Amino acid sequence: VTILRAQLLLEEGRMEDAQDLLDTIEDKDDLANIIEAAYMYIDLGYPDKAQSWIDLGRGKYDDDEAYLAVCADYYYARQHITEAMAYYNKLIDKNPYSPLYWFGLARCYYEQGKLDKAIDACDYATLSDEEFADAYLLRANAFYELGNDEKALDNYKQAEQLKLIPTGFLYTFQGMDKISKGEWQKAYEFIQKAIAANSNRTERATLPTLFANSGLCLYKLGKREKAEVDWDTAHLLSPEDADPYLVEGRAYMEGGENDKAIACWQKATSLSPYPETWDEIGLYCLNAGQAAYACKAFEHAKELDNGYELINEKLSVAYMMAGDREKFQHYNNLS
User: Of 315, 308, 241, 305, which is closest to residue 285 (Cα–Cα)?
Assistant: First the structure.
């Protein structure tokens, strides 16, 4: 009861009052109290405050599975990944059929960028529990980062069936996958399903981007007037959102309407004056075969952040496509 009351105080932002209340507990080193207090801090986003409780159990519960579990989750929450992995491996040795422990290990591999190992650990988690939804979602994300969209989609479907992710997310993923492949009619159909699914939710932050991409599909299908209606809808829904202007500009650039594209991107960069925005514009220009525009966009990104990710490599490619040998060599040497 005391820890529950402390949790309520912490949820109200009254950290000192919560800690004073916890100090009244006489048997702090009781395992149940250690676990409950530590998880309270971890779950509410204050994992550093859990350390004093974790320390109370050292040397006393070092072989207890529940204590090892809270230690593993504590270190993961603190992003001390190596220490967390050591504890998750100890837990797996104790209980190799626990999906929680395999999933914990998978999260650590994922944080380290060891995506194949993360997938393997998720495999063990779902073998132990076929309805362990979090493992399907993590495995989907890992496959997506590896560029395996087909397996990513399979796992997103599993996560959706287990009610972990909304149906709208699944339709959005399928729509964007079809856009990347240039399958505009199929993409449009999935995007429309995503719009319908998201329109029924209280959180509709993705709708402007969905309408923008619906407009892209319509433009590619030769339905310009309908495309413009969708872009107008996107801007009305979120006037300060740069993403719809980026997508609209992409359509115009790929359609050879460069002046309209530039006007959209000027609006986008005024709303989001960051290297990421210019980088996306540069990539759109490259894909449209507009190397000169790509060079300008990447130069803007570099001006804003000289060390922006792979910016010299992108500039060297853009200038090579533009036929500027001198600048190609300059940026290629910097790569």
Answer: 315
Give the integer Cα–Cα distance in Å for 231 and 250.
12
- Residue 199: pLDDT band with limits 50, 70, 90: confident
- The tens digit of pLDDT for each residue in 126-171 reads 999 999 999 999 999 999 999 999 999 999 999 999 999 999 999 9
Token code pair at residue 157: 């479907």
Tokens of 292: 């000169």
Q: In 3D, which of 34, 75, 91 has the Cα closest to residue 57?
A: 34
For residue 230, the number of C-alpha atoms closer than 13 Å in the C-beta half-sphere is 25
Residue 204's pLDDT is what?
64
Q: Contact at 8 Å (CB) between 121 and 103?
A: yes
Write the DSSP assignment of 136-187 as a string of letters: HHHHHHHHHHTT-HHHHHHHHHHHHHTTSS-HHHHHHHHHHHHHHTT-HHHH
- Tokens representing 51? 């350390």
Sign of CA dihedral 140, 144, 150, 156: positive
**Rounded Cα distance, 158 and 209, in Å:** 25
Q: What number is the average pLDDT over the span 187-200?
A: 92
Contact (CB, 8 A) for 215 and 247: yes
Which burial class, exposed, middle or buried, applies to 280 when counting CB atoms under 10 A from its CB (0-12, 13-18, 19+)?
buried
> What is the average pLDDT score of the chain?
96
